[in-house]
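User: My collaborator sent over this chain with a note saying "see what the structure looks like." That's all I know about it. Can you take a look?
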Amino acid sequence: MAKRVIVGMSGGVDSSVAAYLLQEQGYEVQCVFMKNWEDEDDEFYCSSEEDYSDAVQVCDLLDLPLHSVNFSKEYRENVFKYFLTEYKSGRTPNPDVLCNKEIKFKFFLEYALKLGAEAIATGHYARIFTSAGGIQLLKGIDKNKDQSYFLHLLGQNELSKSIFPLGKMTKTEVRKIAREQNFLNSDKKDSTGICFIGERDFKAFLQQYLPTQPGDIITTEGKFVGQHDGLMYYTLGQRKGIGVGGGHGTTEEPWYVVKKDLDNNNLIIGQGHNHPGLYSKILKAGQLHWITFAPSKIPFECTAKIRYRQKDQNCIIIAIENGIANIIFTENQFAPTPGQSVVFYDGEQCLGGGIIETI
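Assistant: Without extra context I'll predict from the sequence alone. Here is the result:
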């Protein structure tokens, strides 16, 4: 009897081709469409109905059963609450990383196992390799689409029950297959941004859940140049939307967010992309997670990314004390941001990661 694999079907081209490839490889494939967000404003921005329609079209073409499940309650409890708490504390979270850990590779995995699945599959661009030392998470072959950064919180149990059919493919190849199979979503635009905000204005969305606390905008030289609407609306390294023109400085260079002074509710800005306040070689990271095993020796040399699609950066973990890693990079890093993920690599292998605490 063929191995039953259940695909998380988003309605996008990636998960659709993943389902097709598994079917071609002889698996017994079933699909699940997950709805992870419900809101009174759904019709204003959310594409869930369109996505579901695309998923149905693909499953009809491939003659695959399509289940539908609503994880909105689980998402709010395990992802969205964390998102709000982080913004309220002045940090910038990455909910997509947590969504993979808590929803796709926890609740969806549990749901799929109840349906008799031996494994789940998604359209992520990543690879899995089993070695004597454990199951490794590897980068996807397509360097522009590699999504190991977003999967770094997965562990041995999740990886042992997961398949990533697109790991050895490029996006161009995936779209070509989708067109050949007459999938209506073959040229569908990739989803970007935070899923539950969609096309809505970010500031307007946050205002529904968190009270605004306006304060002063101060330059790194201590000059008052305006007022901000609330520190939660800004992130380190941000250039657009500050509302301070070049005329306030010595040149016409744009202004950037350098620091958030939480104690005094001040937004600290500096002029020019090369402003020294925007760069650091040193950062601390907590909530550490290792996919196979923690470093056996400290100091530990590896590479790391502090944001998605960043080129791997050489660094050394010089100490891990009380669950906090002290990291020194070889080169200056632009705007390391508390709340974001720092993800560690050894060549193609994703080792794990943590949450940036301070810089």
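A starting point for your reply to your collaborator: The chain has three domains: 4-180, 211-274, 277-358.
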